[in-house]
Amino acid sequence: FAFFAEVFVSNLNAACLRCLCFSITGCNATVGCSKGYCGPFYISRVYWADAGKPVFPEDDPERAGAYQDCAREYNCAANIVTNYMSRFGRVRVCFSGQQQYAPPVSEICLGCICEAVSNCNQSLRCTGDVCGVFRITWPYWADAGKPVLAQDKPEDDGAYARCANEPYCAARAVQGYMAKYAQDCTGDGVVDCYDYAALHRLGGYGCRGNLDQAFQDKFSRCMVQVAQLNGGQVN
């Protein structure tokens, strides 16, 4: 038998927040507002509203500029992210007999893959045959199960590009791809973030090959920084 349930995932600690911030803007405290996004977490007004419109003490959410002021300041912005994840931080888990299936790749690992492949540049769209912050191809998206945005169907014209260009949908594609091809690419006896990075870069049938130096260097730096922030642990 099998059934699905929505399970709350609560693992957004300080190290995870820092990693998310780093993967998006390098945690640049001088980032202002550009193209509808503000601050070190690159938060949109819609995201802020979904998070409950957090503001500074004594401030009014209805005040013009309240969203921008909060999103630009790290601690207030981190509160926005925490609230947003408290509302939406659930995964769909399949229970089959005694087994449970959840997305294989942690948010920290996704962040480092994103950082290595594109510097997590959210302004990236489609160039040639790759799209979005994870530089996803159509075959990759298809292998991942063709995830789409809420208003789309997989067969809709442009559904692939719209998903790959939207970071959260693109992350779902990465999760789907890894769930399909998960394997010990590095030969160390475990399947971890290093294997997922190799799978993402080299594909499900070539992940035992050699990573290009630029990708490997960026990914390794990110993993080291995350480990330092997280007391030596990388999820």
Automatic annotation (TrEMBL):
EC class of the enzyme, as a word: hydrolase
Short name of any one Pfam family annotated for the protein: Destabilase
Domain of life from the UniProt record: Eukaryota
CDD domains tied to this protein: lyz_i
Keyword terms: Antimicrobial, Bacteriolytic enzyme, Disulfide bond, Glycosidase, Hydrolase, Signal
Reactions accelerated catalytically: Hydrolysis of (1->4)-beta-linkages between N-acetylmuramic acid and N-acetyl-D-glucosamine residues in a peptidoglycan and between N-acetyl-D-glucosamine residues in chitodextrins
Cysteines joined through disulfide linkages: C109-C193, C114-C120, C126-C131, C163-C169
GO function terms (MF aspect): lysozyme activity
Its EC number(s): 3.2.1.17
InterPro entries in the cross-refs: Invert_lysozyme
UniProt KW Transcription keyword: no
Signal peptide positions (record): 1-29
Protein name, entry field: lysozyme
Gene from which the chain derives: LOC113202584
